[in-house]
Amino acid sequence: MAKKVIVLGETRDGEIRNVTFEAIAAAKKVADGGEVVGVLFGENASGFANEMIHYGADRVLTSEHSDLKQYTTDAYQQAILQVCDQESPEGIIFGHTSSGKDLAPRLAAKLGSGLVSDAVDIEIEGGTAVFTRPIYSGKAFEKKSIEDGLVFATIRPNNIASLEKDEARSGEVQSIDVDIKDLRTIIKEVVKKTAGGVDLSEAKVIVAGGRGVKSDEGFKPLYELAEVLGGAVGASRGACDAEYCDYALQIGQTGKVVTPDLYIAAGLSGAIQHLAGMSNSKVIVAINKDPEAPIFEVADYGIVGDLFEVIPLLTEEFKKV
Ligand code: FAD
């Protein structure tokens, strides 16, 4: 049955995040021929709105209210609830990002709705959206659907393919008035811990280092390889605990969950808690000098060797491509 589905778009560092387009593709499936309404808040929201339309949204609601410039739970919750009042959607899709993970359960509770979080696939079965989501740290998958009320879900970045961009697509972009009051949180300053570069959770290529990298200096060859491949650098908790890099890079059960096309794991053993964050990567390449390291059990390609010899060789070879 055709539904009206809302998608909350996200911007970061002056760019619209890819997960926005993936969420639109997911919303299209859930809408099942119905309408997909994009919602975008913050600076230059109206400037980005057309991008949402080019990727499949039918129309977009924007607000550049000063309290929505930076994400805060309070302000975004109030604004989305007003959009829901105005639009009466039958579905809501967010990215499974730090803001999506924060906002979606609160909104679901406020709206008295169910929520499927961290979906990696959607199928329509007998008119019902059936979501696939990983469980037990990615070792198994379960299928879930919401039978009553709003179909509300967050989708894991890099899993649901966005639709082909069509710049000829057009749709209405409407700036809306939102009333935000009694804020309990105000962002005064944003201090960035990682400098620019590719967003780890959306990166198509990740070069991750572990304790075997031995120092912050030891991460340099990993950054060089990541740059040549247009990817991002990640790390094991072992490397973060040893202060070789910032915790913002940590991948795993208590870090970020990533699904790149290519994951290069260098000098990390492959502890179960690390695998929980990366084992669904499409291709895994492990570089470790210990042939018995558990990372080789999940790797598609394994290189037994010293990362300080192997990584510069890979960088040189990829530079030639
Ligand atoms: P190690 O296990 O010490 O492995 C280092 C590897 O480097 C070894 O295999 C060694 O052979 C190899 N090596 C050394 N020198 C070289 C070289 N020159 N060239 C090539 N290879 C080399 N861990 C995470 O990563 N993410 C998490 O989110 C996470 N959450 C956790 C949550 C809990 C509750 C607990 C208890 C633990 C968690 N951990 C997590 C920690 C996890 O159990 C491991 O301790 C950690 O992942 C180990 O990091 P590592 O692989 O870098 O280090």
Can you put this structure into words, describing what you see?
By secondary structure, this protein is of the alpha/beta class. Helix content is 29%, strand content 25%. The strands form four sheets. Strands 7-11-6-1-4-5-12 form a seven-stranded parallel sheet, sandwiched between helices. A five-stranded parallel sheet has the order 14-13-15-16-17. A three-stranded antiparallel sheet has the order 8-9-10, with helices on one face. The longest helix is centred in the first third of the chain and has 15 residues. The protein starts with a strand and ends with a helix. The mean pLDDT is 94. Flavin-adenine dinucleotide binds next to helix 6, helix 7, strand 16 and helix 9. Belongs to the ETF alpha-subunit/FixB family.
In helices, the fraction of residues equals 25-40%
Radius of gyration: 21 Å
Q: Tell me the span between the first and last alpha carbons.
A: 48 Å
Q: Please count the helical segments.
A: 9
> Overall pLDDT, averaged?
94
Largest sheet: 7 strands, parallel
Lateral strand order in the biggest sheet = 7-11-6-1-4-5-12
What would you call the structural class? alpha/beta
Indicate the low-confidence ranges by residue numbers. none
Present as ligands are: flavin-adenine dinucleotide
Strand content: 25-35%
Topology:
Blueprint: E1 4-8, E2 11-12, E3 15-16, H1 18-31, E4 35-41, H2 45-54, E5 59-63, H3 73-87, E6 91-95, H4 98-111, E7 116-119, E8 121-125, E9 128-135, E10 140-144, E11 151-155, E12 172-175, E13 205-209, H5 220-229, E14 232-235, H6 237-241, E15 262-266, H7 272-278, E16 283-288, H8 295-298, E17 301-304, H9 307-320
Parallel strand pairs: 1-4, 1-6, 4-5, 5-12, 6-11, 7-11, 13-14, 13-15, 15-16, 16-17
Antiparallel strand pairs: 2-3, 8-9, 9-10
Helix pairs in contact: 3-4, 5-9
The protein binds flavin-adenine dinucleotide.
